[in-house]
Amino acid sequence: MPDSGLFYKEWKQNKALLIMIFLVFMLSNPFTVLNTYISYQGCVANQNEWVGPCVFSVDYLNGTFISFFWIWGVVLAVSQLGIERSKSFFDFTLSLPYTRGQIFNAKFLTGGMVIVVPQLIGYVLSVLLIMLLKPDQAVYFHNYSLGMIIVSMLAYSLVMAGGALTGNIFAQLLVSFTVAISPFLLISLPAINLEILFGGSIDFIHGPIPKWVQYFIPITYVDSKWVENSPHYLVIPAIMTIIFYIIGYISFVKLSNERNGYFFLWKPLDRPVQIIVIIIGIMGFGYFGFSASESFAGYLIGMAAGAVIGFFISYFAIYKKTKHV
């Protein structure tokens, strides 16, 4: 368990952001209910000007404030690792009389409490408002309110893991986004290219896919449609949150060299990742070239362009040092 001094340090260093996120998480859910009620009252007061009957329905599938909660998990993780490293605060943090494991856990627990506690408070306040205002229906209220806690933690732990592996903010965000769409990059994109090369059809792309498979893709949770399916699927992002925490913890503890602005903290990752980026560039631009020209020549031109672009992007991103403030 981290020492209280580490929690105090996290609080003092990110106080303004932590307070803002806490208030947003706590008030957005009740405000959604209250805003819907105000709109309903406006409909009742001006019923002659409205088309159709006035219905007091709280629909959490139709664009609510809490659908963007995952963004705050990303912002918090970037502030705690990426920004702290870019501003050279880590020299001070690592000089404190604590282990690297204690430091990471203090950061993660602080972030976790700021994400989970206010959302639970907001959920309770929303339940009380619903009991008081008595809407005709509250669509997906419980599933979405509680599910967003898990989704927010998933985004937070993913970006924290990305920050523990990388040496600057750009790298942290790029690695996190790449992992979020990795099943497409590693499975679907190669399969699409095989279709182009051999002229056949890859069954698993066009055939029926079980609903639960898509929930292994973190980017899926950006779209609130996940709430329409069984709440039991939320076990998947909960497990992924734990996995990303473990990856982040091990990386933070083992990768002791901060490398002052380079892409990866673990140098042996540089070359394999560069090769992967080039291969993805070849496949991605090859597919784009084939789609644009509908010819194999366009596919080859796209592959050549992808190889060049992938090389330069990976070279300048991975091997060029980012200046710290």
TrEMBL record:
The chain crosses the membrane at residues 16-40, 60-83, 104-132, 144-166, 173-192, 233-252, 273-290, 296-318. InterPro entries: ABC-5_transporter, ABC_transptr_acetoin_YtrC/YtrD. Keywords: Membrane, Transmembrane, Transmembrane helix. PANTHER family: ABC TRANSPORTER PERMEASE YTRC-RELATED (PTHR39177). This is ABC transporter permease YtrD.
